[in-house]
Amino acid sequence: MRFWKGFALVGVILILLEESFSGSIPTTLDGPFEPVTSPLDQIKFRGFAVDLPESDQRVMRQAKGFEPEQISVSLSATEDSVWISWITGESQIGEDIEPLDPASVASIVYFGRKKTGLNRKAVGYSLVYSQLFPFEGFKNYTSGIIHHVRLTGLKPGTRYFYRCGDPSAGSMSNLHSFKTMPASGPHNYPSRIAIVGDLGLTYNSTSTVAHMQSNNPDLLLLIGDVTYSDLYLTNGTGSDCYHCSFNDTPIHESYQPRWDYWGRFMEPLLSETPIMVVEGNHELEEQGHHKTFEAYKSRFAFPSVESGSNSEFYYSFNAGGIHFIMLGPYISFKRSGEQYKWLEGDLANVDRSVTPWLIATWHAPWYSTYRAHYREAECMRLEMEELLYTYGVDIVFNGHVHAYERSNRVYNYTLDECGPVHITVGDGGNRENLAISHADDPGNCPDPASTRDPHLSDNVCATNFTVGPAAGKFCWDRQPEYSAYREGSFGHGILEVLNETYALWTWHRNQDLYNTAGDVIYIVRETEKCLFRTKSQDDTIDC
Ligand SMILES: [Fe+2]
What we know:
Residues 68-180 form the Purple acid phosphatase N-terminal domain. This protein is α+β, with helices and mostly antiparallel strands.
């Protein structure tokens, strides 16, 4: 009797699993799907895409003297190491600034597995950066002291407690904690990974962050366009549209204190939950002497050395059985360039028996169908898509376009059951507001020459389609077949990898209840059908 009860219980569990995998929630095995455009939510369209003012308590400096602030955790390339970053001292802005001495404050983290036993110590390095505009009447900026400390020798899937700061100055942080990623392996995955782009610091951004926190992520991926400090002049005057409002400035200005505002607002989340960032166009922030990306490169820690890239613009890391590749569209992506060579080497070293899932992210999407930035990254796609396809990338995440879109499996603009699923989540909530127009809407197809971003490429690469229903045209006359679902709403996504083949993707809209999904699908790796190159094998093999 007991045997039959046990047998029945197993049967029920199997049925439940079957329903959850293939019941009400669709899977990519059911695709390709007919394209769906969710209608614009007129009431929630604008939302509250207004930047938090400097008077908001959440962005004001609360630290005294050289107490740590803007504390964050980032991953290294493997689960046994993380970076802790923070800032001490006050930034300065004005015509007469004096950079702080980075060596004047030590960079120390005490950490351990018990709250009362911070028995280990790690020492890192510190720096300051300046944003200088050599023009009459402009204000210059110099940062507080930015500290980065790498903790090593950590156990996987383990919570560690820490304090950071300079004990000799009597300025250590409050107690914080983080959890390391599970050990790399086909059966180990972080529970939930939050993914968003183009976050900014508006009241919509705060809603996005609140929704993310309610989903209790183990890791946050921020796919470029972080603070939108470059929508401001150096005197702090801001605009929703920089080029509309400030078209007579000799250089594209930025107001760097907004980086500090962003760091303070995000500290409650980022001091406990690791963040991995990759650059967007709004991090470019040109200053005098053609320096760019200084805030981005200085404020975040990247596993660049650990992953062999030696660049803050592209790197890779493992999170359990997932290998993440972070790429940079705003530096050379040509096959003859350093990034491409690094990517080839990194892909060739991925052992899919250890990290079955291969996920790539970069800022500007290849398969967005919105009018904004339509086919803007085509030069990058032409250089890199074949390589990513050959190695069997499972999912691509992008930002840049301020909306949500999920593709069918696609390669070279053709439906392909072994191509990646491309997901755009540039819907974090920044003050530039939502993208709502589609390139296939009547009269909305842009002039191909207008689609070039000079920061992305010197060339215009997007041309008329040569095959398929849109042959001879630059845009489709309806939602393209490679676009499965699109909607212009603010939100974020959560990726839950369940095993070697199933991952649950949910997109959460800010206007919904916390636990409601606007789009949900199981992304399924078809390991018996799709052939790709793997580690140590030059020939294409069955995985
Ligand atoms: Fe962008």
